[in-house]
Amino acid sequence: MIDGFKSLKVLTKLETKEALNRLADNFPHITSMFAHSASGVSLPPYIILANMKKASHEIRDIIKAKSSWIVSTKSGWQTKQSFF
Q1: For strand 31-33 and strand 46-50, is the pairing parallel, antiparallel, or unpaired?
Q2: How far apart are CA 44 and CA 70, in angstroms?
Q3: DSSP characters over 19-56
Q4: What is the pLDDT along the chain (84 residues), one digit of tens a residue?
Q5: Would you call 9 exposed, middle or buried from its count of C-beta atoms within 10 A (0-12, 13-18, 19+)?
C-alpha cells in the first residue's frame, strides 16, 4: 500500500509562476496500480480511466495484447466494483 498523503511541493510554470495543479483541474483523474511479489512475479499495469463510455482502438489494442488491464469508473478512482 502506498500512503496517500500529499506532498507539499508545488510545481509551477517558469514563465508565469502559476501552480500547475491549478492548470490540471481540467484533466480527468487516472488511477494506476503496479503490483509485484517479492519473488519477482508481476501483474500487468492496472489502469482506471474516468468516465470512459467506449474504448478507443488504441485502448482496445492494449487490452487485446494483455499488456495492461484497463477499466473505467465514473470518477477515475478505485471503487469496490473495479477492485474485484
Answers
A1: antiparallel
A2: 10
A3: BHHHHGGGSPP-EEE--B-TTS-BPPPEEEEES-SS--
A4: 455 555 555 555 666 666 555 555 566 678 888 888 889 898 899 988 888 888 888 888 888 888 888 888 888 888 888 888
A5: exposed
Nearest to 42 by CA among 51, 52, 33, 53: 33
Residue type, 73: T
The residue type at 71: V
C-alpha cell belonging to residue 66:
494483455
Q: Give the start-to-end residue ranges of the domains of the chain.
A: 28-83
Side chain identity, residue 46: Y
